[in-house]
Amino acid sequence: MTASLFCFAALMSFQTQSPKLGDADFPKPTPNPRHDAKVADVRSHNYDLMMIGDSITQTMGDEGGEWEPLKQVWATHFAPRNAINLGYSGYRTENVLWNLQNGELDCDKSPKVAVLLIGTNNTDDTNYPTVHTAAQIFAGTKAIVETIRKKHPTTKILILRIFPRGGANEVTNYHRRYKNSEQCVKTCEEAGLMTKKLADGKHVFWLDVNSVFFRKDGSMNTDLIPDLVHPNAEGAEAWANALEPTLSKLMDDKPIKSQHQLAFESAPKPIQMLAEKRVMILGDSITQDGRYVGFLEYMLEKQYPWLNFNLFSVGLASETASGLTEASHPFPRPDIHERLARALKAVRPDVVFACYGMNDGIYQPFDKGRFEAFQHGITSMIQECQKAGAKVILVTPPSFDIAQFGENVSRDGVDAGSSKPYVKYNDVLAQFAAWEVKARPAGVQVIDIFTPLNRRATSANPLGYDLHNPGDGIHPTSVGHLLMARFILQGLGLEVSTDYPPDELSEVEADPLYKLVDQHRRTRSDGWLPFIGYTRGESFKTDNIVSVEDKARDLQSQVDALRRKG
Fold first, then answer.
1. pTM > 0.85
2. Could you give the CA distance from residue 542 to residue 546 in angstroms, rounded to a whole number?
């Protein structure tokens, strides 16, 4: 017997039995103050839309605390439609059935639409002593639909397929994780699909929005369902947007677009490429310092307040793409390829920025072998990122200022290194940058920051500011980092001013929004770098990322509140 025939036979057999207390289709008395309040509300007010379900529905409009951001989703998509929230945390089909049969449908005027999302808790074999099969959940859902139809025959009922539950193999960095068994996950999938049989296309409709919760590789998108059961604000917005075309048709109104959706649609394509994506930024000590990343994130957050930017800056000091090390260096330089696979697996980026080259010539004269090692290292890094499904944005090395080293330079290149660089090392970097711009592998965007930075650095600073730290022609000053961020945005195709930056720098650094954004950037960088693991003289590896992400989420909430104020 095939699986589909077996499920159908089980369903038909189950339907011939009389339901009893404990069954998914037998109302289970669940009196509580929330129910009493909702009954009073329904009896005193006529609603056009009823949202019926469990905690996934309740948290979207009636809960505070960590669920507070979800209220915006309710305010955008459902409140304007004269909706009532009939969601209850922990409820199953039998609880909802009792609620509806005991006052929650006692309105004088029938609602236009009732949206039903229920059944996930019926499958939970960790937190409930009794679980139900897919056929039993179908029967419970059918009983709910029949109850609504009997009381309000003109109301259109929209059944949502049960949302997915993440299994044991799903990776999440959230402080709360539901341990869903393989059977629980499977039953959710089967029961949700089975409820499609209830739709007749006239009075009862069915919709599957679950695709919004999965990544391209088929894994659950834990940026949207961090605890593997409940959508967060971004997840709620995603499924509400997916619901809109069908709901608006049933309500006979126009689809509603959130400020977030409108902002995304109106944003330039380069911004759409970064917004709502996981963006990993790789590089050497300049990236580990990260000020240019902080400025970049600040500019994005400030200019596009209703878009979400998710940056992971994990640069590592001394690192190369070539795997080379000068003899004078105190330890073998880290090679990005040693940690790249771990970084891709941990961060799961959609986009990867990579800025290498400064260390790859090992501060010595141009050499064909070193040049080829750099080319090979960059090429293989790109290939590994693309294999993982990430778009690569290659950033050329910034310029180098030999003048900052005074007399502590090597004029013939003998024994040259980072502490005593070759006098014409900037020319070496120029060739590295020129190759990246010219090669431009398929599917890769290349942003040249070397040329505009070098033009500034070699202009004798007529404006009176340095791009590099005194005595150190490698690492940029804050002004240099600000210009790097500006030139990256320009390279993406955005119109950005690069006028006299010191004036702007003081304004940016004094902005409370920048301070929060940069704290968020540093929190993530300091946490994710050792979580990925690296070797720099000695090896470093930590296992704790949950507390890091908890802190990052709190900081991001403060950022969002500040940038969206008013």
1. yes
2. 11
